[in-house]
Amino acid sequence: MDPIRNPFAPGAGQRPPELAGRERELTAFEVVLQRVARGRPERSLVLTGLRGVGKTVLLGELRSMAVKHKWGAGKIEARPDAELRRPLSAALHRAIRDLAVRHRAPDRVEEVLGVLKAFALRSSKADAKPRDRWQPGIDVPAAQGRADSGDIEIDLVELFTDVAELAADVGTGVALLIDEIQDLQADDVSALCAACHELSQSGAPLVVVGAGLPHVPAVLSASKSYSERLFRYVRIDRLNREEADRAVLAPIEREDAGIEPEALDALFDASGGYPYFIQAYAKAAWDAAPDDPITVQDVQVAAPEAEQELAVGFFGSRYERATPAEREYLRAMAELTQGRDESAGTSDVAVYLGRKPSSLSPARDSLMKKGLVYSAERGHIAFTVPHFGHYLLSRAVD
Fold first, then answer.
1. Backbone phi and psi for residue 211, each to the nearest 5 degrees, phi listed first
2. pLDDT at residue 121 above 70?
3. Count of CB atoms within 10 A of residue 131's CB?
4. What is the C-alpha to C-alpha distance for residues 378 and 375, in angstroms, rounded to an integer?
5. Distance between the two ends of the chain, CA-based, in angstroms?
6. 177-218 pLDDT, tens per residue?
7. Which of 58, 66, 290, 377 is the most buried if burial means most Cβ atoms within 10 Å?
8. pLDDT above 70 (res 167)
9. Which letter, b or e, does each residue of 278-304 get, where b requires 16 or more Cβ atoms within 10 Å of its Cβ?
10. Pairing state of beta strands 174-179 and 206-212?
11. Which residue segments constitute the domains of the chain, with CATH numbers given?
């Protein structure tokens, strides 16, 4: 079949041709937008799930919805080695620009931009290298005495309040979307929770939408105990059979092509219903099919190609980040779970490796910081990447 017409395109954060199985989340966010616009209180939102389930894609979709409602919207990706001030300032600068085109009081917009600039400039340390200094490109003087104390918790509350008031002036709101939220530094997590708490109490029209790994609720709760009530947590999981079939069928039918039912069975078995894997296997099956429709034989021929692509771009890139000691820990997890997407007991890993649990803590903690594993529950550890255990068992021992 013509590879130029292939509708499938697996990629990090890339929207699939058919966003199947996320209607509930999109409808819920539509309610949030409508309620906030009417001055009704709403909790901020946190999407959690394994890698490859489409959290980043969904986050982008929610941002598009906010923009269609004429909200100010900005999106950032948290990094464990970076403070929140700099990327958040850039995101809110974008949101303020969205609002400025509708605001009738330029002086008021400039006033808020001055507060944003003051907040942003506090991120530049005196000994920072030139490349680490952010020049916000805001052609107004930095405000004094507002969001510039240097205490991120105080400053973030003040900045959020001013930006939300600007949105209220034009009868709309602001959406701040944060991907990989589990990678925020501890002080920034605390500040974000405090700012969202303040906003929820005042009913200000600013909503934070975070996305991260399954242990995000525990990260937020460890920072502020009230975070359990502050955010609405939505678990993003694999697609069920009907949704997975629609993710494959709809794009194929739009190309006036077809796929046999047995081929759909094979694709679902191979992908496990994970959106990223669906795209990878469907793309390979389309390219492998000599004629229309795609058959089960085409899927079987294409599977090794898809698996090789995943091994390099999805699994391998993450595995290469692990040290030898960390790889030993990962392989032990894979052996104990027999390659299934299940958690392993930390004590079981220690017994399997013939080591004391305390001696394995550095490797486990480092893997958690790298986002390769997470604590599924107390005393248990699991892969953040679906099918990672199977991948480890299928490769040669280093």
1. -140, 135
2. yes
3. 6
4. 7
5. 39
6. 999 999 999 999 999 999 999 888 888 999 999 999 999 998
7. 66
8. yes
9. bbbbbbbbbbbbeeeebbbbbbeebbe
10. parallel
11. 23-235 (3.40.50.300), 241-306 (1.10.8), 321-394 (1.10.10.10)
Which is nearest to 56 in space by CA: 19, 27, 111, 103?
19
What single-letter DSSP state applies at residue 172?
A: -
pLDDT at 348 over 90: yes
Structural contact between residues 37 and 43, judged by C-beta atoms closer than 8 angstroms = no
Residue 233 gets the label, from left (phi > 0), alpha (psi -120 to 50) or beta, of: beta
Distance CA 160, CA 154 (A): 10
Q: pLDDT confidence of 398, banded at 50, 70, 90?
A: low
Per residue in 295-344, pLDDT tens?
A: 999 999 999 999 999 998 899 889 999 999 999 999 999 999 999 999 99
Helix residue spans in the chain (DSSP H) = 23-37, 55-68, 85-100, 106-121, 152-169, 186-202, 216-223, 227-230, 241-254, 261-271, 275-288, 296-310, 317-319, 324-337, 346-353, 357-369, 388-394
Amino acid at 209: V
- CB burial of 5-35 (b: ≥16 within 10 Å; e: otherwise) equals ebbbebeeeeebbbbbbbeebeeebeebbee
Look at residue 206 and give its three-state secondary structure: strand
Amino acid at 230: L
- pLDDT tens digits for range 278-287: 999 999 999 9
**Residue 130 pLDDT:** 52
**pLDDT surpasses 80 at 134:** no
Q: Half-sphere exposure of 305 toward its Cβ, with a 13 Å CA cutoff?
A: 16
For the cut 70, the answer to whether the pLDDT of residue 135 exceeds it is: no
> In the 8-state DSSP scheme, what is residue 170?
T
User: For residue 4, how many other CB atoms are within 10 A of its CB?
Assistant: 5
C-beta separation of 210 from 49 below 8 A: no
User: What backbone torsions phi and psi does residue 164 show, to the nearest 5 degrees?
Assistant: -65, -40
Q: What is the pTM of this model?
A: 0.90
